[in-house]
Amino acid sequence: MVKLKRRITFNSPVVLSFLAICLLATLLGQLTGDKSTYAVFMTYRSSLLSPMTYVRLFTHVFGHAGWSHFIGNSTYILLLGPMLEEKYGSKEMVEIIAVTAVVTGLVNAIFFPHVALCGASGVCFAFILLTSLVSFKEGELPLTFILVVIFFLGQQVYDMFFVEDNVSNLSHILGGIVGSASGFVLNSGKGKGKAS
C-alpha cells in the first residue's frame, strides 16, 4: 500500500497574511467594543495634521463591522486571491490592495465627510474584476469581463440608488475599477506580472 504524504503549504502569502490581519483587526474590534476599529481600522474625514488620518487610508480595509462582514469578504478573497497571486505575483497583489484602500478611503473622505468606512469589500471587487481579465490578450475584450461588469458592478450601481443599507456600493465600484485597470495593465505587457 502506497502512503500519500500531504503537507499544508502557505501557498498565497499576501492573501493569507492580509486575511490574518483582517481576522486580528475584527477580533480586536469585537473585544474593544469597536474602539480599535474606529481608532485604526476605519477611515473617515479627520484632521490632515493627524498622522492617523493617513494610516487609516491603508488600514481601513482590515477592519470589519462584524463576523458576517468579515466572513463574506474573506470567502471571495480566499476563492480568488490565491489564483491571482500565483498569476501576477505577491508584489502586484500588495500594490492592488494598497491602491484599492487609498482610492476608496480618499473618495470616501472627500465626498462623504460624515460616513466612516471599513472592510475589504473594495478589495473583493478588485479581485472579482481582475479575475475576469486573467485570460485577457491585447486587442481583445473577454465576454466574461463584460458580463461581470454588468452583473456585479451593475448591481452595485442599482443598490447605490435604490437600496437603503449600510453597504458602501461606491467602494465596491471603485474596487472594481482598480481591479479592471490592474488587469489591463498587468496583461498588456506593460505590467510586471508573471508570464502565464
The major beta sheet can be summarized as: none
The quaternary state of the protein chains shown equals: single chain
% residues in beta strands: under 5%
- Overall helicity: 55-70%
Unreliable stretches: 192-196
Tally of domains: 1
The CATH topology label is Rhomboid-like fold
Order of helices and strands: HHHHHHHH
- Measured on Cα atoms, how large is the radius of gyration? 18 Å
Q: What structural category arises from helix and sheet content?
A: mainly alpha
Would you identify the CATH architecture? Up-down Bundle
The rounded distance between the terminal residues' Cα atoms is 37 Å
Q: Can you identify the CATH superfamily?
A: Rhomboid-like
Q: Using the alpha-carbon principal axes, give the shape.
A: globular
Q: How many β-strands, per DSSP?
A: 0
- In CATH's first tier, which class applies? Mainly Alpha
Q: Could you report the average pLDDT, rounded to the nearest whole number?
A: 91
* Individual helix count: 8
Report on the architecture of this protein.
- Residues 192-196 have low confidence and may be disordered.
- Helices cover 65% and strands 0% of the residues.
- It has helices at residues 13-31, 35-40, 51-59, 67-88, 90-111, 121-131, 143-162, 169-187.
- The longest helix is centred in the middle third of the chain and has 22 residues, at 67-88.
- It is globular, with a radius of gyration of 18 Å.
- The protein has one domain: Rhomboid-like fold, CATH 1.20.1540.
- It is built from eight helices and no strands.
- With 196 residues, the chain is mostly helical.
- Helix 1 runs antiparallel to helix 4.
